[in-house]
Amino acid sequence: MKVVLIYAKSQAIRQRAAEVFADESVTKGELARDEIYPPLGITILGAGLEQRGHEVRLLDDSIEEVETLREAMQWADLVGISALTPNARRARELGKIAREEYSKLVVMGGPHPTTNPEFFLNAGSADICVQGEGDLTLPEIIEKLHDRASWDSIQGITFLKDGEQIATPRRALVKKMDEVPWPAWHLWDIPRFMKLMVNPGVTLITSRGCPYACTFCDAEMTPRQYRAMSAEKTVDMMEHLLKAYNPPQMILFDDLFTIQRKRVIAICQEIIKRDLFFEWICESRVDTMDYEMLRWMRKAGCIKIYYGLESGSPRMLVTMKKGVTPEKVLAGAKLNRELGMYFKFFILYGFPEDTVEDHRLTEQLIAKTRVDAVCVSVLQPIPGTEVYEQLKPYLLKDVAEMEFHYWHSTESFKHPNFTHSELHAERERLLKAHARATKGILPKVKRKLERLWAMVRHPELIGDLLEIRRRKARNVQRVRESHWGYTLTGKRDVVALQVPIVKAD
Known about the structure:
19 helices; TIM Barrel; Rossmann fold; alpha/beta; 505 residues
């Protein structure tokens, strides 16, 4: 069967991002646009369909024109559309085009069809909505596509039958990640994507799920169940990407890469054992880090870690169920500084319980951690999350109808304690507090002294530093000789931070 899988993207957000990115008077980075990455979800699904003999096309609505999408819809026997909540309106629009203009069967998947299938089914923009992971569900849908009487036997879907919404039992999650096919990167023009990126690189995912219960996180796709690829398979995939695309860096899109300590260390040791040289970035929780793991990550080429902190207020950390304390944050930040790891904190303002005092405590914690960068966004309540239920009385309208942007901060609800402009003012205040704590000569000297003292207490770090520099030199030489040598010129990290440049005054 011929299948086209489309990643829907709000065109309002796309246009806004393009305008800001083109405006030379605006600081580039977080407020510029979304980074352009090939969407991994449909890339993995495409690989699975190819293994089963289907002909697959992948399209990213972030960069393609609607004429290209229409041509693919006409070509396909089945149209699959992936929809995050901010892109739900666009997905609904594309589904209606495929069904009404080209008489195609449409399957919707992703977070919003998982939690709100009626948004698409009642509008006539989808025949089937998939709940949760589609690795096994989508192939079964294709097998039974034209036998509607058998749809009841497909686990993990919702559809309309005689005008009534039918939801079948939820399909069990994929347990063995080693059996999930690698993303079908070959179905994309990867160099085209990398040329559009602020920092060119290839994305990959080596695990799924997160065991924590943060109130703002939509866990419906992978209900709090963490599953990971083996260390050997993970490095096999990394080595394949190096040989196929020779990218300057790799970006790991795992929700929580460092949750399994032994696995992370094994991955790092395998990278070094195979003599592979590349830089990589991951996301983590600061309380999962320890000396040995972070040391191995540094040696294996990890250059940046992004931590979800969200708040520096003990009360708010409890309220949002982060499961971390300021004391653990301070300890983790100190470890990162001592081992010379670049690290960034994500902060989230706008929880219904947020007060000015909570923000001041966050400012104080950020100043104490002296983190390299902070990314401050305003909360957007997502269906399927606990905080969404809290904020329902304050919503301006259905969030899926808003085409909100996480970074451009659409006002989606009336906060009980702040106006939207006040939340943005608080955001700017935090960025300036961070700048005061980290910019200038004294903070830099203090950071170097802290690193030096760590080496005095742990002499093995001196040997690590020499090894890291040797490996970095070989990586630089590899990149310099590739198509991406230009990434080594200029101040690459200024935009790599993806936050505005803020002066303390």
